[in-house]
Amino acid sequence: MIDFPEERFPSTSNRGDRPPTLRGVTEADLPELLRVDREAFPEDPYPPFILRQLIEIHGDRILVLDDGNGLLGYVLFVNASDGSVSWIMSLAVIPHQRGQGLGRRLMVEVLRRLRTEGVRQVRLTVEPTSAAAITLYGSLGFSSEEGVVRDYFGPGEHRLLMTLAL
User: What is the mean pLDDT of the chain?
Assistant: First the structure.
């Protein structure tokens, strides 16, 4: 089990007056969530109606980092129907805050929560060319025995499937 104490995550925001707070999403966060998603994934952000419905359906499974002036990132995770497997559906950090440990902070909290729920395995997919994301997930214990799944999201949309046993 990887455990990272909070003091490893100092304030990284130049925008806000306080260190980023990790908290659950609220309906009022929708405009900021859309902004973060568009900044993090400019080629393929979630449509607004999808993020709105995800808040309704999985609001307890969306964590955000808030610096007091806006969101810096979020993570969305969901459990399979039997509760033994969880999927990280999206991890996003705004570009100018990457490399500051924010993605790690979000993931560590998700993994902590999933362990307490008795989840046995966590899965995710990642763009095979995203070295930073692959390195982050690998440092948290994820592995990619199944390798790249071709056309995972459609023609030419390959993904590296990574798993972590809890």
Answer: 90
